[in-house]
Write a structure and sequence with these properties.
alpha/beta; Barwin-like endoglucanases; about 35% strand
């Protein structure tokens, strides 16, 4: 069932964007980082900033831009992968507090999101 939903999500993303910007897409569970990590180094070497639009993912290359769309409310944000994780089972991507606010997931602490990998040079949408 999940693969069917993922396939439908990918097809809808390709139709909505015209297939021009999308490299690949997936359904994922997003959570957000604690503000207590501000100032700590990320896997990319930069300091974590909860007010930036960044994310942690286990496999996407550092520097990759991802468009996250909250499945429930359709709010979206573009983030840049600058860290690795999360390593808790059932969690696929961690975002900053600012990105979580834009996705409308602060209260719940987590959300199902469509993750769309964007090509280099793609403008934020």
């Amino acid at each position: 069932m999940r693969s069917l939903f993922s396939t439908l999500a990918l097809v809808s993303v390709l139709v909505l964007t015209g297939g021009m910007q999308v490299v690949d897409a997936e359904l994922a569970t997003a959570v957000y980082y604690s503000r207590h990590l501000d100032g700590h180094r990320t896997a990319s070497g930069e300091r974590f900033n909860s007010n930036a639009l960044t994310a942690a993912h286990k496999t996407y290359p550092l520097g990759t831009r991802l468009r996250l769309t909250n499945v429930r409310n359709k709010r979206r944000v573009v983030v840049r992968v600058n860290d690795r994780g999360p390593y808790t089972p059932g969690r696929d991507i961690s975002v900053t507090r600012r990105a979580a606010r834009q996705l409308g997931m602060l209260r719940a602490g987590h959300a199902q999101v469509n993750v769309t990998r964007l090509r280099r040079g793609t403008r934020r949408v």
